[in-house]
Amino acid sequence: MRATFMFGAGDVRVIEVPDPRIEAPTDAVIRVVRGCICGSDLHPFHSMPASETGRHMGHEAIGVVEEIGSEVRTLTKGDFVIVPFGIQDNTCVFCREGFPTSCVHGSWLSGGQGEALRLAQADGTAVKVPGVDPDTADDALLASLLTLSDVYLTGWHAAHMGRVAPGKTVTVIGDGAVGLSAVLSAREKGAERIILMGRHASRTTLGREWGATDVVSARGAEGIAEVMELTGGEGSHVVLEAVGHMPAYEQSYGVVRPGGVISRVGVPQYEDAPVGFGSLFGKNVTLTGGPAPVRAYIEAAIPEVLEGRIEPGRVFDMTVGLDGVPAGYAAMDAREALKVMIDPRA
Amino acid sequence: MRATFMFGAGDVRVIEVPDPRIEAPTDAVIRVVRGCICGSDLHPFHSMPASETGRHMGHEAIGVVEEIGSEVRTLTKGDFVIVPFGIQDNTCVFCREGFPTSCVHGSWLSGGQGEALRLAQADGTAVKVPGVDPDTADDALLASLLTLSDVYLTGWHAAHMGRVAPGKTVTVIGDGAVGLSAVLSAREKGAERIILMGRHASRTTLGREWGATDVVSARGAEGIAEVMELTGGEGSHVVLEAVGHMPAYEQSYGVVRPGGVISRVGVPQYEDAPVGFGSLFGKNVTLTGGPAPVRAYIEAAIPEVLEGRIEPGRVFDMTVGLDGVPAGYAAMDAREALKVMIDPRA
């Protein structure tokens, strides 16, 4: 079968590989109905050292169960499932506490950008979507279900950890697919005001449709000043940081108000950052966030999508077949595409 | 009158100064009944550059209102009050949101280590203690009331921001007066297990009386390993960091469990610290805390003290008159005293 591998910075290829098979009794094999390219895939796309074996790409997928291991209890061949980017048993202490991304049997999904994938901890990871036939469902519905494997629920995680609630002013930093998902999530959680910091008109337009009340295109000190002016000099109760680079972190503590929360879901491309009296401590700012424990949120989100209350799949503005995956990476990297969906049978 | 000034590292003197007087209509003059030396006073005691004018010391006090400005409405001459270390109007937006330490009219108290002090924003800052005559009250009660100006409620702030609750495992880093106050606060909030990291037997003994279920005297990697073993390899739901130095921060993220909270009240003696994938982000750790908004907690704490449910004043193990203040600094610096109370009339 065909799958996407990255062999180094800028070097993405779709190659022929052996079909995935059951390796452990808790595995399943999933035929991929839709996969996609993640903003976080662009980090290795910029910096990965050359590798002969390559990295098996794709950590977001919806698909159909093709085969199950002997210990899989909750899935049956033919089930249509969402496969989140984090693998978990969904029973360990950290899973029960709501953080399956730290599961004691956890790992990260790979293979979502191919025809099929081997899924470890299948019972704990795959979530069945009731009443949907992926072969006849419309593309928009599939796109929205696909976002529950990562991007929409990563935005949701930001809002959840940031304790977004009615009456709050929320600033979202980043107009990528996660940032826009954070806007939608903040609206779902009843934020009073949502300021979106981003400079791509096509994206901020969707952000406004999803609930952004203000858009600030300036960055750095100028962007901070604009947000402070919009909030009457008080700053934002909650900042949802969906970028991961240091300037976004600096903007975060620049616009957060005393006692406020910075919730990060952009994977930090730094280890050390300011947290002392002059940044977080002096104004009692809370810093939170991390890899989204998507599995903990999927069940509640499925009816939101199936009943049409949210359409998070609108972040996809380009669809490719497997042949088009390298071009999809290039388009996202050039910001010509917001987020690229992959239909392996297209 | 006499007051304490610091003129440089290690140079604390009690000198004659003009009596405080009303300078703004919102001021009051407070006769100090008890003041004390704060662990945070030791930072300038180690590092303050020499100064001819000196720094007026003392940010914790209980006292009696001697004089009020023309706009003071809630205080009367003769009222016995607690004066927290943060000055606030207690009406601005940040005060209403629970963070009076960020009050738009805020500043920090000084003069608590003298015979009297000028209190700005007197209505917003001083809290009356009903039914107590400071001239006849016993020393233990005065000591406990004095802790509501800073140290006990700083420990409380750590526990509050850390969301300590029944069923939680809490690790307290630091066996100083704030750390011990954090232990007591964690017990008050129903923590299931409280691990105190500290190495001074006289202090950890009080920590055990106040609810510590385990004491770990080792530090660094060894201390982290002991806490991890005590928690079955899982780590602590909440870490209350009451030191402020980088090794304590490193211990904090070493012992916190996935999805846990590090709540800092030790004033950070660093600005940058690890917050990336390898420290906080990867395991969804929340970092919170800051200067305690003591004013927001005093009213609720007064009956706890008056009715004898808590005795936070037990952190004081040395009392001096004004002549003894320099020796009090030296004793705290040498860790011969846990916390030093000042009775200006002794």
TrEMBL record, chains A, B:
Cofactor entry: Zn(2+)
Stretches assigned to the Alcohol dehydrogenase-like N-terminal domain: 25-129
Keywords from the UniProt entry: Metal-binding, Oxidoreductase, Zinc
InterPro entries: ADH-like_C (IPR013149), ADH-like_N (IPR013154), ADH_Zn_CS (IPR002328), GroES-like_sf (IPR011032), NAD(P)-bd_dom_sf (IPR036291)
Stored PROSITE patterns: ADH_ZINC (PS00059)
Keyword Metal-binding: yes
Gene3D superfamilies reported in the protein's UniProt record: Medium-chain alcohol dehydrogenases, catalytic domain, NAD(P)-binding Rossmann-like Domain
Domain spans labelled Alcohol dehydrogenase-like C-terminal: 177-290
Family the entry assigns: Belongs to the zinc-containing alcohol dehydrogenase family.
PANTHER family named in the record: DEHYDROGENASE, ZINC-CONTAINING, PUTATIVE (AFU_ORTHOLOGUE AFUA_2G02810)-RELATED, ZINC-TYPE ALCOHOL DEHYDROGENASE-LIKE
Name of the molecule in the record: Zinc-binding alcohol dehydrogenase Rv1895
Taxonomic source organism: Demequina sediminis
